[in-house]
Amino acid sequence: MQAFLEKLTPADAEFELARAIDPERLPAHIAIIMDGNGRWARRRHLPRVAGHEAGMQATRVTVETCARLGIKILTLYAFSTENWKRPRGEVETLWRLLRKYLRRELPEMLRHGVRLRVIGRLEALPEGVRRDVFEAVETSASNRGMLLNVALNYSGRAELVDAVTALLEEARAANRLAGLKVTEEAIAAHLYTAGLPDPDLLIRTSGEMRISNFLLWQIAYTELYLTETLWPDFWRRDRRFGGLSGGSGVRPSEECLATALSARTP
Ligand code: FPP
Q1: Ligand 1: does its nearest atom lie under 6 Å from the Cβ of 38?
Q2: Residue 237: its pLDDT value, please?
Q3: Residue 111 placed within a domain
Q4: Does residue 39 lie within any of the structural domains?
Q5: Is the minimum distance from the CB of 14 to ligand 1 under 6 angstroms?
Q6: pLDDT at 265
Q7: Catalytic residue among 12, 83, 162, 213
Q8: How much is the pTM?
Q9: What domain count does the chain have?
């Protein structure tokens, strides 16, 4: 956090916001439902693919900002079990973008000490995606910086089913089924997120007031930050590029991660 602040100058769009963040109340674990890529594209008369491409840029900036702020864990909802129902071309685009993201960002992630972990029913991922994902997980396994936890083919209900199934199977294998006591701790220890603290903050973009089957168990006490901003707009362009001084003409977004974090301070 200190290093992040020291790099900012009053000319940076994030300066005032970053100063408003209370380092004492920085969440250890942030979870994000990145929503609104399709609407972002439609508003611009672009194909949905363009929305996902733009969403990838917002993801990149958010991951980097979290790592620089010293956030311990960032969990991103990248692909839900429901997403298979989308047209095949769009599903393929999402996997292609994920692979592109890993290829491009892995060196940067390693430089920042980011460790990658994935949660979800991973056995159903296309072969090439699974290979790239596990390679990136292995390559970053010894990093000690932020944990980037990406939910792929994820469903909160499926996670609970898998946790209870694992619990029962373990007990059966140890011949302890008859005396099995199911506790909250035992369920938590068998979730995909076992060993991780629950999120302190859940952000959802694009104005939807729903949880959409994300981290159902883990967000029992999590603070919610819901915003109308579409995911591809959920990052701030630096003023030099923001059109304020005759740059690209692109208006800086009103909102970004720093807005969500500064909104938490009393
Ligand atoms: C929701 O927008 C977003 C997704 C289904 C996928 C999220 C993917 C990205 C942000 C791109 C890359 C991510 C990674 C981790 C590399 P939507 O299509 O549901 O939008 P809509 O509700 O407006 O249609």
Answers
A1: yes
A2: 64
A3: yes
A4: yes
A5: no
A6: 60
A7: 83
A8: 0.92
A9: 1
Point out the residues of the chain with pLDDT beneath 50. Answer: 239-249
Q: Is 213 a catalytic residue?
A: no
- Measure 49 CA to ligand 1 centroid, in angstroms: 9
Does the annotation mark 35 as catalytic? yes
Distance 212 CA to ligand 1 centre (A): 13
Task: For residue 223, count CB atoms less than 10 angstroms from its CB and return exposed for 0-12, middle for 13-18, buried for 19 or more.
Answer: middle
Q: Which amino acid, residue 115?
A: R
Digit-coded pLDDT (tens) for 208-263: 999 999 999 999 999 999 999 999 999 876 544 444 444 444 556 778 888 899 88
Predicted local confidence at residue 249, as pLDDT = 44
pLDDT at res. 241: 45
Q: Is the CB of 39 under 6 A from ligand 1?
A: yes
CA-closest candidate to residue 212, choices 232, 226, 200: 226
Q: How far is the CA of 173 from the centre of ligand 1 (A)?
A: 40
Q: Confirm whether 244 is domain-assigned.
A: yes
Tell which residue, 97, 80, 210, 84, has the closest CA to residue 156.
Answer: 80
CATH number at residue 86: 3.40.1180.10
Would you say 31 and 193 are in contact if contact means Cβ atoms under 8 Å apart? no
- Domain limits at 99? 26-156+198-262
Write out the two tokens for 188: 């938590």
Judged by DSSP in three states, 148 sits in: strand
In this prediction, residue 230 carries a pLDDT of 97
How far does residue 94's CA lie from ligand 1's centre (Å)?
8
pLDDT at 6: 72
Which atom of ligand 1 has the smallest separation from the CA of 78? 7
Q: Two tokens at 66?
A: 């979290």
